[in-house]
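Our preliminary data section would be incomplete without showing what the modeling component actually yields. Below, a chain of 148 amino acids is followed by its predicted structure, encoded as tokens that our downstream tools consume directly.
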Amino acid sequence: MTEKIVQEIQQALGKKIKSVVIKNSQRVYIDIDPKAIREVGRYLWKDRGARYAIATTVDNRTSFEVIHHFSLDREGGVMVSIRSVLSREKPSMPSLATVIKAASWIEREMNELMGVEFEGHPDMRRLILSSEHWPEGVYPLRKDFSHR
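Predicted structure:
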């Protein structure tokens, strides 16, 4: 079933997909260009009926990964994770919140704690760190953050 799902996704999204890894029967990782996130997210959410679960950011020291996780509940609960690699110098990509409102808060959190910019986000106010007690441009979940 997972192979069929991946084949259908590849057929629908074509060259927007850089690579696919089927980790197991319940887990698929798809690498995309960050600029394609809205189209890929729209396809999974609207066309396939996937549930937007969450997103995560990984600091690889030389780059960042933003991974949006979708669950295909009606298709056996297969989890499809869409990964975009961003430059460390300017970690930026289009906001998925313009397509899926549920992505809004997690994008705000990733911006505030990791410094990832989400272009076109409808409301990028701070969510966790108080602006009066936390300096702009300091991201506490980055690997290079110093507590001193």
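The longest strand covers residues 63-72. DSSP finds three helices and seven strands in the chain. Preliminary results of this kind motivate Aim 1 of the renewal.
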